[in-house]
Every structure is written in C-alpha cells, then in structure tokens.
Amino acid sequence: MRHVDFSPLYRSTVGFDRLFTMLDSVGQPESGQTTYPPYNIERTGEDSYRISMAVAGFSESDIAIEAHRNVLSIKGERKDEGSGEGSEILYRGIASRAFERRFQLADHVDVVGARLKNGLLHIDLRRTIPEELKPRKIEIGTPDKSAKQIEAKAAH
Questions:
Q1: Are the beta carbons of 72 and 123 closer than 8 angstroms?
Q2: 26 φ, ψ (degrees, to nearest 5)
Q3: Which long-range contacts (CB under 8 A, 24 or more apart) does 127-134 make?
Q4: Cα separation, 63 vs 97, whole angstroms
Q5: Mean residue pLDDT across the chain
Q6: Which of 12, 22, 53, 78 could join 39 in a cystine, given CB atoms 3.0 to 4.6 angstroms apart?
Q7: Tens of pLDDT along 15-28?
Q8: Buried b / exposed e along 96-129 (16+ C-beta atoms within 10 A)
Q9: Segment 78-118, tens digit of pLDDT
C-alpha cells in the first residue's frame, strides 16, 4: 500500500489542504473499492495540477469525464470488441473492466482539459480565485475637509 506525503505542498499552498486530505483518503481502498486504474497526481505549477490515469486499451469514446460541484468523476467502459473469427484469447493480462473514479476537488479548482495519449489519460486542473475573493490594496487617505466633524462638548 502506498502513501503519498502531501506535507511539502501544505507549506506552499493555502486552501488546498482539504484537497490533499481527500486525495490522500481516496488512495486508501475502502470496502469494495479497488485500485484500478492506477493514477498519479502531480503539481505542474503554482495553481495547476494534473491527474494521470493508466487506461490502456480504452479509447476516447470509452471514457466519460464529468465535473459537478467539487467532484470529478471519470468512468470507463469498453465496448465489446470481437477478436475476429476463429480466434480466442488464451491469456488476458490487459485489464478491460469498467471503472469509475471520483476525486474531491477544492473550491475554485476547475478542469482545464483532458487528453488521452499512449494509454494515459491526463486531466489538467487549475485553481482560479475569483476577483472578488482576491486580496486588494486599500489606500489610506486623508480625511475629507467637507466632512462634518462631531465634537462632544464637555459638561461643566
């Protein structure tokens, strides 16, 4: 069983701690959950990530990717292909069973794109913070002279 240590990423990113905790827990098999297909999660930039899944034997039409709220779902189901008249498979080492993988995504993490190359499905993710949530600089100004000042009179 493999365990990925995300602690170096905790030090350099803010707001992804929930994502890393969830991704770490996804890697642990739950009851009935298998580790098929294998996958990697890598950080490709300051606010960009990539999930790579080994999906040998699957084509683009066999895979469905859906992002809904903070959940990324990847489903794969191969169509039955006849191996030809008179041939039979003596040994099947290339898995072709259906699969479904779910990843919990942090807030403001969006799927940028996906591509299938050399049996690997690459899904690119980017964290984009909306303008209203970004920090903004507040200028300190002098009081407006036209503003009325309220003076309290001391009672003697």
A1: yes
A2: -65, -30
A3: 127/15, 127/16, 127/47, 127/48, 127/49, 128/47, 133/108
A4: 12
A5: 77
A6: 53
A7: 565 666 666 666 55
A8: beebebebbbbeebeeeebeeeeeebbbbbebee
A9: 876 655 667 787 887 777 788 898 888 888 888 999 999 99
| Poorest-pLDDT segment among 50-54, 123-127, 152-156 | 152-156
Q: 10 Å Cβ neighbour count for 146?
A: 5
**What tokens appear for 3 in the block?**
């365990």
HEC string for the chain: CCCCCCHHHHHHCCCCHHHHHHHHHHCCCCCCCCCCCCEEEEECCCCEEEEEEECCCCCHHHEEEEEECCEEEEEECCCCCCCCCCCCCCCCCCCCCCEEEEEECCCCEEEEEEEEECCEEEEEEEECCCHHHCCCCCCCCCCCCCCCCCCCCCCC
